[in-house]
User: Fold Subtilase from Clostridium botulinum.
Amino acid sequence: MERIKLVIIDDGMDLTDFNRDRIIANYKVIKNEIKYMGNHGEEIKPYQKEFRHGTICESVLSYSALNYNLYCINIFDVEQEINLMNNLFISLRWCLDNKVDIIHMSIGTSNFSYFSKIEEIINLIIQQGIIIIAAGNNNDKLAYPACLPEVIGVRCSKKEILSPNEYIYNINPIDGIDIAACSPYDGRELKHYLNKDILLVSEISKCNSFTAPSITAKVCEFMNRGIKNIDDIKHELQIKADYVNKSMNNFTIQSEFYDQYEDNDEEIPVPNIVIYSEPDINIDKVIEALQTYFRDDKYNSVAISRSGQVCITKGIYVIKTKKVDKYIRDNVKAVYKLTDADILITQVYHVDEILFLEKKGLVDILIYCYENKVNKDIVNHYENLILLKSDGLSNSNSERIKLIYNQCINLFKY
Assistant:
């Protein structure tokens, strides 16, 4: 059986008592080039107080993964995020050129400015059939590439609802993280003698980074059985899951991540553009077009739609309900907290929802889409009001939508 080519992109590998017999091809990005560093990790320095992050990830992986050749790429010997991201792109390109099977990574970014470039190279990797497993952000922020639909995103379960080695598979999660798991290795100690008198000990802590390798081990198992397509692997993860969380479909967040936003009076310090449309007026194209204009101008805008399709890469999230949503304020806050948005666009179905948001200061601009006659109460009540007649919605790229975008920008200035 051909061995799986598995790459860990991290901060390198220590040569330890517990991995000394394992062959790990080590590489490092040095001055924009990947250099081969040998088949074992780096000697631990006398002053080191803990193992490298990559060492612990590899240790978790080794407990249950079989039949793989391991490659480790150290991208962390730089300062500043821009250099780290550059090293990440170099290492991902190396994975493409060397036709690896699996990429495991804990690194990600919540910095909107890198999203499009990450998405571009991830798409190339997926087209080549390479599987990517990525840990989510430990602060519950949107993280690229873990959130991407073609990537297997993993987080640890924070509440004591799972037993060791159990996991939840989330259907269409708002943050793109497919799996919440309980690693069987949480709390286990790794030990290495620096000399006969000094023992270095690190605990495998409960965090996303050290949970993700246990899922990578499962993916190795699937690939050894001939399951290699990303859709098939995700399907296998779903049917093997201890729990399948269908309630997360489109918007709902697992309670352990959503509770923090309920009844929270913390203000949202960014503009919220509320879009209200009369019944039977489809404004999906308006929302998507506004998103495009904002993002093309480098705004990290995020939209909450009520009828469109979820698209994390376009910053569009969906609440599928026709009823008055008294929790809409919490939903808006959850999306803001998740994405660190510069601008929010929130679609509402009912006037009551506008009032719910207005009471909390969450209506900065109101776009009112009407068919024939306007509601005078709305027109007279809101100062920052933009009117849009339904016959102006036929073309999402029309000059009318561009004009609305410019009106929003001008209102932000005052």
Summary: The longest strand covers residues 4-10. Confidence is low (pLDDT under 50) at residues 248-255. Residues 4-256 form a domain with the Rossmann fold fold (CATH 3.40.50.200).
